[in-house]
Please model this.
Amino acid sequence: MDMKRLRDLLITALGLWLMMSPRLLHFPIAHADAAWNTWVVGAAVIMMTAVSRYLVDTRSPWEDLACAALGVWLMAAPWALGFAGRPTELANSLVVGFLIAVLALWAMVIDADLRKFMDDWMHQHHLIR
Model:
């Protein structure tokens, strides 16, 4: 199994965890904001990795960038949505968000196609001679 496939599999598994975690970690029903956030972000992560991996023939950096943005959102969501005072939801959001962001950014950094695209873009815009 190549590294890109392994990263996609790990990010997809984290998306599945986000879909299941409100039930498994017993998020309180009275605080639906954390549960809805994890469900929506989990579904978005799964859809992006599935589309990128199985429906688009060529790999592009949009999926990694979008997953990294969702990971950053997960880390900011406890304060933005007001569930930072609940330790279970806070820890789940911070840990899973960090892992998704790191895996996605790692994929972007070591992707040779992305490096070639960036080099070509910088040459076209005269940022590098």
About this structure: Residues 15 and 43 are 7 Å apart (CA to CA).
